[in-house]
Q: What sequence folds into this?
């Protein structure tokens, strides 16, 4: 097998060509990837598009050597190679940046970079390493302070570090899995713009998984579209419209229409939060003296860069974290988010990272869908016996209604693609017709555009039925299109509030950035 000598960032030699030929990957009877071919041409940014569960992650995991493909070939510069591990992918100059951060929070940027190398020795000469790191940073498209512990970096800086790590490892082919999902719109444009510059300078090729058409049209040259594990189309981005790409993804034209908001004359306060304080896991303050009211039939949006207290706020309201001070009430009664109180007041929550926070990963899709109702009729008899037939038929209905792509209701929920785990939780939490208060944190994270339209519609429908909605989102566009009122959270405090009609985008951006 060829072991590539790795080019340095300053070399002018083009990155290698990467070809995937007739690749198939089966998981048991499920064909996740079916005879797919694509070429990543040197010096291009190539978008990989597809609905949730279309096979994008499976394809890149086969390239990276996480999965052994059932059939098919990988060619690097026209030579066939079997890539058995990410370490081997690295030897061919292929590196991947994941949706979630992989750096160690307690260690500094410099320590994380040095330890990410596959050839780190037991004895590290820090003086020499620092000289090299400083030289590397000086020639990098973006900078991150070497001495800051990663845990103290803002989300945007962390994401930049993940990309820098790959440049530091001298990756020439970068696979980016939804790299902008944790960034503000401004940061996303900055990061993708800088990466594109590196590509234009001939330092890199990039394979970009994204659900955002805007990113495809603004930053990529070519596109490959997958649908149900198969190649649905490909081409030069300049020659394709968004409608063309959407049609390739869906296999048909699907019209989406925005749902009109109605007005509520008799709205009542549902959620009231007074002087609420809570700490982070490390004991430092996360939210400070927050005051908030959400009325029935209203969507209040909380905007902010991740890590500014939103997660802790949602955790307090969902009963996963104890406040250190303050009061929460729902429908005028004190509320501490116990299961009994959530049931009595019909409070539903869609937390972030649903696989970790809202599912039992090894339990089946049907069991996860029944987590809120398994002890009630008709799924339970006398709250003692589970009626499995009912649980299964309820799940089948929800799978259909929420278009969850799963081979059956009986597979472990952890086998589903990220977007379909999200749909499973949404199906469970949104299907009740007795919702009073809905708390949603980044409900569309990682979802494809048709799922986003669907979820947005469901949230507005709930609001129109009189549900009070607290929508915490890092996606400003989402907040601006759904919320009635927007509040900006920065360093655990509310620093801006406005009715959506009067909201000023520039001010919101500045407040989010802490100015
Ligand atoms: N380890 C696994 N075991 C069983 N099935 C799997 C496994 N990984 C993925 N799948 C299935 O393969 C199919 C493709 O999933 P994949 O994660 O590649 O989709 P995706 O296009 O990346 O979706 P998303 O946009 O939601 O991340 C899905 O039906 C998924 O349930």
A:
């Amino acid at each position: 097998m060829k072991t590539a000598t790795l080019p340095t960032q300053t070399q002018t030699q083009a990155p290698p060509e990467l070809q995937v030929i007739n690749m198939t990957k089966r998981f048991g009877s499920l064909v996740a990837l079916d005879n797919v071919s694509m070429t990543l041409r040197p010096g291009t940014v190539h978008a990989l598009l597809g609905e949730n569960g279309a096979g994008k992650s499976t394809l890149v995991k086969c390239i990276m050597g996480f999965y052994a493909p059932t059939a098919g070939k990988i060619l690097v510069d026209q030579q066939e190679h079997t890539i058995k591990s990410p370490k081997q992918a690295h030897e061919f100059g292929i590196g991947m940046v994941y949706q979630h951060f992989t750096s160690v929070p307690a260690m500094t940027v410099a320590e994380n970079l040095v330890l990410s190398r596959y050839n780190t020795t037991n004895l590290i000469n820090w003086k020499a390493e620092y000289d090299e790191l400083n030289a590397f940073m000086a020639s990098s498209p973006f900078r991150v302070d070497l001495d800051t512990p990663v845990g103290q970096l803002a989300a945007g800086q962390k994401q930049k570090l993940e990309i820098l790590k790959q440049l530091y490892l001298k990756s020439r082919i970068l696979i980016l899995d939804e790299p902008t999902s944790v960034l503000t719109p401004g940061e996303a444009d900055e990061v993708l713009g800088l990466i594109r510059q590196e590509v234009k300078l001939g330092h890199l090729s990039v394979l970009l998984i994204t659900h955002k058409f805007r990113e495809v049209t603004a930053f990529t040259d070519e596109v490959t579209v997958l649908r149900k594990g198969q190649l649905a189309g490909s081409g030069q981005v300049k020659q394709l419209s968004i409608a063309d790409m959407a049609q390739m993804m869906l296999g048909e034209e699907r019209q989406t229409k925005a749902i009109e908001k109605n007005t509520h004359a008799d709205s009542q306060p549902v959620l009231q939060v007074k002087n609420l304080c809570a700490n982070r896991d490390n004991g430092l303050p996360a939210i400070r003296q927050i005051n908030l009211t959400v009325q029935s039939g209203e969507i209040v949006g909380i905007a902010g860069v991740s890590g500014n207290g939103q997660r802790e706020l949602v955790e307090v309201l969902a009963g996963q974290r104890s406040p250190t001070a303050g009061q929460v009430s729902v429908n005028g009664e004190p509320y501490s988010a116990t299961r009994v109180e959530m049931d009595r007041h019909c409070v539903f929550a869609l937390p972030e990272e649903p696989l970790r926070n809202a599912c039992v990963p090894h339990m089946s899709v049907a069991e996860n869908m029944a987590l809120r109702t398994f002890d009630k009729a008709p799924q339970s008899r006398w709250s003692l016996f589970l009626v499995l037939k009912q649980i299964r038929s309820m799940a089948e209905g929800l799978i259909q209604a929420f278009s969850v792509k799963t081979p059956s209701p009986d597979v472990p929920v952890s086998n589903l693609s990220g977007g379909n785990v999200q749909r499973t939780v949404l199906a469970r939490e949104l299907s009740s017709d007795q919702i009073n208060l809905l708390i949603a944190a980044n409900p569309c994270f990682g979802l494809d555009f048709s799922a986003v339209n669907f979820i947005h519609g469901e949230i507005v429908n709930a609001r129109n039925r009189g549900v009070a909605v607290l929508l915490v989102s890092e996606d400003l566009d989402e907040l601006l299109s759904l919320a009635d009122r927007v509040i900006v959270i920065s360093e655990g405090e509310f620093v801006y509030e406005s009715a959506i009609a009067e909201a000023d985008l520039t001010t919101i951006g500045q407040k989010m950035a802490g100015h």
